[in-house]
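Assess this:
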Amino acid sequence: MPLVELILGGQEIFRRPRARFNWLIDRLCGPVDDAQRVNIVAFDNRTEVSLKEELRSALQSYQPGRMDRPDAIPAAALLLLYERDDGVHVLFQERSYQVEHHKGEISFPGGARDEKDGSAAGTALRETYEEVGVAPDDVDLLGELDEIWTISNFRLRTFVGWLQDWPYPFQLQQSEVAALLEVPLGYLAEPGNQVEDVREINGRCVVLPSYYWEEKRIWGATARIVTNFLDVYRTLER
């Protein structure tokens, strides 16, 4: 949904959907035609557009790392961003207990590549549509993050996308997805919200990043993807 920011003296006063701001213009300025209104709200949607395009530029310049594990199963996932009334959010899903791998864990939409997908990005978009009902045409792909290996032996490529509209009629595939988590990007980007998760893997203690949102733990491969994305996000001059 297009947003409007009102900034006075360098301070953000409010951010509201454009329809609500049009009502305020009419109250303050009297009825105005559409041409006048466009001039008044020329800064409409500035934050959303600039962040999306800055991320696109940063990701296009980014060189994703690749895994040397030819025996692993090719898979892909989608880190989906979108603009709500209260800022940019990241979409996560809570996996059901009916799935084969990672039961009950927090993840991004994604799965194993199908030979009909045509590309890894096609896999990510297909899986997102099947699992949460987001149509491929409603996603603007911005770029790709590092390929990672998961303990379930998937070689996972993650793509970053921007959902064109919000609110969106998500439709969950109940056999795979129990619920959605909509986490503010600003919350994830706060350094204090990353927690060190110490685990024993193959007899060694390994420190991995994790995040908590509404008592749900985001960890493992999903947390590594989040951290990779935040590394790119923090390169932006904002």
